[in-house]
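sorry for the late reply, my laptop died twice this morning and i had to redo everyting from scratch. anyway the thing you sent over, i finally got around to it. pasting the sequence first so we're on the same page, its 282 residues, then the predicted structure underneath. double check i copied it right bc i was rushing
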Amino acid sequence: MKYLYTLLISIFIPTLLLSQTWQRKTEVVEQPLQLFQSTYAYALPTAETLKKGDYLYGISHRFTVPVSSGFEQLFGIDGPVINMMNLGYGLTDDIFLNLGRSNKESQWWFETKYKAIEIRNESLPILVSLLGGVAYSSRPTLLGGQALEAGRDWHFYGVAIINTLIEDKIGIGITPTFSYNSHLQCPEVVNSVTLGAYAEYYIDEMYSILLETNPTITGWRNKYDSYTVGFTMNTGGHFFKFSVSNNTAINIQQFNSGAQSAFLGSSENNNLHFGFQITRNL
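ok and here's the structure:
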């Protein structure tokens, strides 16, 4: 019996001591790199996606009456308006799906964005995403009674998105884009290559100033390149964007076709259009 007690003590005392010193290791989960607060600037996409299983709902207005109409038409807010709605979904942390519709030519579109490259660097972090989309104009507006050839109401586009953030204050993005069948007013299919860019200065956690431009490098362009300036407000639950632009289109495919009026510096200056956008993550 004495030997039995000795054996039990020799087994249980070391076990007890080890149980006091052992601790479960906590797995460190690295958070995704985020450089912008939104999946879009105004019309151009950022490299951001949603978390897996999250939804995003957005509604955007771009008023067709210019700001120069003055107070009598409330600087264009009396309307009419180009309206856009979209619903996004995070299929994974790196894949973002987006379905939307604009009342301009009753265009529907579907996009897939893939976050391809993530470079963590304290001085110059970089996110690279790839976006592909297809759009269908169910009620195209044609000039001169021209007939629309079969297939001309479909559009395709691809975007490479490169984002960085400087000193946690200035977000910068470039979006080289190829658009197939850029504009339905052309007698034949024409394509466009644009080099979009945007910059966002974060005043604080809620407010920022956002500028966006989309010059056409080659191919079809409406009369002018597109420029949009304004500010954003992030309340935590909702994301608001207020802007003026020389382009009344909001979705990528139509925005890439160019602007119908100049931003500054010509006889058509002041033909800017007020815009309002709101999104909410669900």
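The radius of gyration is 26 Å.
thats about all i looked at so far, will dig more tmrw
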